[in-house]
Input
Amino acid sequence: MENINHPLFNWIPVNLIEKDNEIYFEWIYLADIKYAEPFFDETITKCKSHDFNSKPFKVISTVDNLIDWSNDLISVELKSFVFHVSRCGSTMLSQSLATSLENVMISEAPIIDQIVRSTLFRADEKSTLLKSVLNLLGQKRFPEQRNLIIKLDAWHIFNADYLRSLFPETPFALLYRNPTEVLKSHQKMMGMHMVPNVLPSIIFGISAKEIDEVSFEQYGALVLEKYFQGFLDFYQTDQNVVMLNYNEGMKGVVEKFTSFINVCYSNEELHKMFERLKKHSKNETAVFSGDLYKEEVLQIDFSRLDILHEKLNNSLVEY
Output
């Protein structure tokens, strides 16, 4: 069976909708557009000008429709989930991997986050639904495609055990970076998860009392502490996980990752990946010349972060 003859070929679910106590999924048509942008949402924005997506109504389905339809399409093999701590080279990694014609690279798809964090489903229903959505996002749309790689949102490290229960054989990658560099990047443009109360603090295991006791700047450090601890906890208990350190160089990160997921890329494909590393992660027309951060000292207590960061580095040595 070939996907190209299926009526749902190039259609994917992109949004969970709750209305009148019912749950629906919004769909969008991809045409021949690949997941090539730095973030999944940017690719979806490019698709919205297509005639199928420009009509005054949304294309929606029920949960049962989605699950049933996902079984009718051929998907490429899921090769890895990439977890990261934010501002640590994860976009550069995903952009590098996206250059390969063999890869289907999904970078922080909101629909995955919607399902993972949803309280609307029974446990078994959520698991089936998540697998179905990944099958649809990873449908084989081009002949060369063989590998599905999912870069998750930073806070999904706290769902790693749940995802492991669903995908026991899938390699997991944990990408991190020096905490000072991470937080200086957020100082330039703060991510929503680093701002108190934008995302529920319970996602990170942060109590209301902890929020009250830290400054605005220190809250970002507290979130990063939780990420680092989440990495350590999972790494120490799982046998199919690799730790990746941005500060050891992104070429080494790409080499270590591709080796770990056991995909044998051609020299041509690897060359394209390495060439992409020379450009800015969010703008491939600009040459990357290194990160430029403000010189002033951050008003942050790094004592706990430094300890956790050292433990992460030590785990790499042990690896």
Remarks:
- The longest strand covers residues 11-19.
- Residues 70 and 132 are 5 Å apart (CA to CA).
